[in-house]
Amino acid sequence: MPAQVFISYSSKDRTIANMLCALLEERGHRCWIAPRDIVPGTSWGEAIIDALRSSTVFVLVFSRHANESPQILREVERAVHLGLPILPFRIEDVAPERSLEYFMSVPHWFDALSPPVEDHIDKLADVVAMLIAGPKTGYIPGKPRGAKRLTWNNGLVRAIAGGAALALLLLAAWLGGLAPPASPVGWIAALLALAIPAGVAGSGRVAGWTTRGMQGALLALLLVAAGVYGWASSSYVIAGERGAPLVRGTECTPDAKLVYASECPDLPSDALADAAYDPATLWTAASIGRVKWMLGGSWALIAATASLLVAGWLGGPRPLKQED
Asked: Which UniProt keywords apply (predicted)?
């Protein structure tokens, strides 16, 4: 199948060019891109000329590197000579210079200067589809449907995958006895890990959670919550009957004070056995409740902050690194 879209780019912009190629081909537009589509043993110049002649649209990944490339100037000249529509996809805020400026006086410019770059590629794909289809009355650009939409280039897909992985870790911690004992927050935290990244990425407001300041604050909050939980768990979660974890309180009941006096509230292990493993007999219900709230709240905060970090790391636009 002949290529429909010729992608011209500087080798220093290969990351973005390959991403552009992948997303356009997901929309069903066969692309020609070097060096992938150059047959071994074929002359580089001959391969490019043949590709230009068989293409319908010329897409230029425009940057400061492309602006300075003699090779790209030659490709643009040949595209103009062959009458191909030229679609500059600008990834840096630079203006075309010298000879390139003459050939770049085209009606369609696509500025991909703000994240996410996927949105700009999606708009470019719409125009590519119209140019390839030709003048059709009532033409509506095709959108990927069904499973074709579920790609790693989709921030929502990445956020859901990251949230699912975090949820599995939290469930494993709950089943392994690390979560607050006898508390629904163990499985509620897993639900938070699924819902928060999906909700943040799906709302389109993920940008606020991707900044260094916000992620630094979330990481600090996560460490504080983990520290509080670790201290509370080691201090107030004790072994009950057959080793089952129980939450003790911070204040003894009047009866326990009479029996254990100065040992309250850090009672010996045999006290719990004598009380038939009923913490409420030894510690007040109010103090046990406060400890449970501390454990549950810190565990939920761990899940929430970790989920927001996942949303920022995976739900936002992917960093596109260019070579200098």
From this structure: Membrane, Transmembrane, Transmembrane helix
How do residues 49-71 score in pLDDT, each as one tens digit? Answer: 999 999 999 999 998 899 888 89
Cβ neighbour number for residue 253 with a 10 Å cutoff: 20
Task: Give me the phi and psi of 54, to 5 degrees please.
Answer: -95, -5
HSE, side-chain direction, 13 A CA sphere, residue 102: 7
How many structural domains compose the chain?
A: 2
Q: Residue 180 to residues 24, 219, 282, 283: CA-CA distances in angstroms? A: 48, 22, 20, 18
Tell whether 183 and 223 lie within a shared domain: yes
244 in the same domain as 194: yes
pTM over 0.70: no
Any idea which residue has 């409420």 for tokens? 280
Alpha helix ranges (H) inside the chain: 14-26, 44-54, 64-67, 70-81, 98-103, 117-133, 155-175, 185-203, 212-236, 254-260, 269-274, 279-282, 285-315
What the block records as the tokens of 50 is: 């043949």
Residue-range definition of the domain harbouring residue 127 = 5-148
**Tell me, what's the pLDDT at 67?**
87
Q: Please name every residue paired with 252 in a beta bridge, in sequence order, or none if there are none.
A: 283
